[in-house]
Amino acid sequence: MQLRNARDWKLEAEPMPSDRIELDLRQRxxxxxxxxxxxxxxxxxxxxGRGSNEPCALCDVVIGRDxxxxxxxxxxxxxxxxxxxxxxxxxxxxxxxxxxx
Length: 101
Ligand SMILES: [Zn+2]
Description:
Blueprint: H1 5-8, H2 19-35, E1 44-50, E2 54-55, E3 62-63, E4 68-74, E5 82-85, H3 87-100
Antiparallel strand pairs: 1-4, 2-3, 4-5
Zinc ion (ZN) binds near residues 56, 59, 61, 86 and 89.
Protein backbone atom coordinates (compact mmCIF):
# COMPACT_ATOMS: atom_id res chain seq x y z
CA MET A 1 0.00 0.00 0.00
CA GLN A 2 1.39 3.38 -0.97
CA LEU A 3 0.34 6.47 0.88
CA ARG A 4 3.21 8.82 0.27
CA ASN A 5 1.61 10.91 -2.45
CA ALA A 6 -1.03 12.28 -0.12
CA ARG A 7 1.54 14.37 1.70
CA ASP A 8 4.10 14.91 -1.01
CA TRP A 9 2.01 16.46 -3.73
CA LYS A 10 2.50 20.03 -2.57
CA LEU A 11 6.22 19.69 -3.09
CA GLU A 12 5.78 18.94 -6.76
CA ALA A 13 6.43 21.85 -9.05
CA GLU A 14 3.92 20.67 -11.60
CA PRO A 15 0.24 20.78 -10.79
CA MET A 16 -1.26 17.30 -10.66
CA PRO A 17 -4.95 17.61 -11.42
CA SER A 18 -6.06 14.23 -10.14
CA ASP A 19 -9.22 13.37 -8.27
CA ARG A 20 -7.13 12.77 -5.23
CA ILE A 21 -5.92 16.36 -5.11
CA GLU A 22 -9.34 17.72 -5.84
CA LEU A 23 -10.76 15.82 -2.90
CA ASP A 24 -7.86 16.97 -0.79
CA LEU A 25 -8.48 20.59 -1.69
CA ARG A 26 -12.19 20.28 -1.07
CA GLN A 27 -11.54 18.86 2.36
CA ARG A 28 -9.16 21.70 3.09
CA UNK A 29 -11.72 24.21 1.86
CA UNK A 30 -14.35 22.65 4.10
CA UNK A 31 -12.07 22.90 7.12
CA UNK A 32 -11.13 26.49 6.45
CA UNK A 33 -14.73 27.52 5.96
CA UNK A 34 -15.65 25.82 9.22
CA UNK A 35 -12.77 27.50 11.04
CA UNK A 36 -13.74 30.85 9.62
CA UNK A 37 -10.47 31.27 7.75
CA UNK A 38 -12.33 31.33 4.47
CA UNK A 39 -15.75 32.83 3.88
CA UNK A 40 -18.42 31.63 1.56
CA UNK A 41 -19.13 34.53 -0.69
CA UNK A 42 -22.07 34.33 -3.03
CA UNK A 43 -21.81 37.70 -4.66
CA UNK A 44 -18.36 38.39 -5.95
CA UNK A 45 -16.28 39.35 -8.89
CA UNK A 46 -13.60 37.07 -10.27
CA UNK A 47 -10.44 38.30 -11.86
CA UNK A 48 -8.22 35.90 -13.68
CA GLY A 49 -4.66 36.85 -14.30
CA ARG A 50 -1.05 36.14 -13.64
CA GLY A 51 0.09 35.18 -10.20
CA SER A 52 1.32 37.97 -7.96
CA ASN A 53 3.69 35.88 -5.84
CA GLU A 54 1.20 35.93 -2.98
CA PRO A 55 0.06 32.80 -1.17
CA CYS A 56 -3.14 31.07 -2.20
CA ALA A 57 -5.99 31.53 0.30
CA LEU A 58 -6.68 27.82 0.28
CA CYS A 59 -3.42 25.89 0.03
CA ASP A 60 -0.96 28.59 1.17
CA VAL A 61 1.33 27.86 -1.75
CA VAL A 62 2.62 31.00 -3.45
CA ILE A 63 1.06 31.58 -6.85
CA GLY A 64 3.99 32.33 -9.10
CA ARG A 65 3.99 34.87 -11.88
CA ASP A 66 3.95 32.10 -14.47
CA UNK A 67 0.76 30.61 -13.01
CA UNK A 68 -2.88 31.58 -13.33
CA UNK A 69 -4.33 33.34 -10.33
CA UNK A 70 -7.98 33.84 -9.52
CA UNK A 71 -8.76 36.91 -7.49
CA UNK A 72 -12.07 37.02 -5.70
CA UNK A 73 -13.45 40.37 -4.71
CA UNK A 74 -16.51 40.29 -2.49
CA UNK A 75 -19.28 42.62 -3.56
CA UNK A 76 -21.70 42.09 -0.70
CA UNK A 77 -19.36 42.36 2.26
CA UNK A 78 -18.16 45.44 4.05
CA UNK A 79 -14.83 43.82 4.78
CA UNK A 80 -13.48 44.46 1.33
CA UNK A 81 -12.64 40.80 1.21
CA UNK A 82 -10.15 39.65 -1.37
CA UNK A 83 -8.91 36.13 -1.93
CA UNK A 84 -6.34 34.72 -4.27
CA UNK A 85 -6.62 31.17 -5.48
CA UNK A 86 -5.04 28.71 -7.85
CA UNK A 87 -7.42 27.52 -10.51
CA UNK A 88 -8.02 24.19 -8.75
CA UNK A 89 -8.25 25.82 -5.34
CA UNK A 90 -10.85 28.25 -6.60
CA UNK A 91 -12.84 25.30 -7.91
CA UNK A 92 -12.67 23.51 -4.58
CA UNK A 93 -13.66 26.60 -2.61
CA UNK A 94 -16.58 27.29 -4.90
CA UNK A 95 -17.73 23.70 -4.68
CA UNK A 96 -17.66 23.66 -0.91
CA UNK A 97 -19.44 27.00 -0.71
CA UNK A 98 -22.20 25.58 -2.89
CA UNK A 99 -22.48 22.63 -0.49
CA UNK A 100 -22.51 24.85 2.59
CA UNK A 101 -25.33 27.11 1.49
ZN1 LIG B 1 -3.93 27.00 -4.02
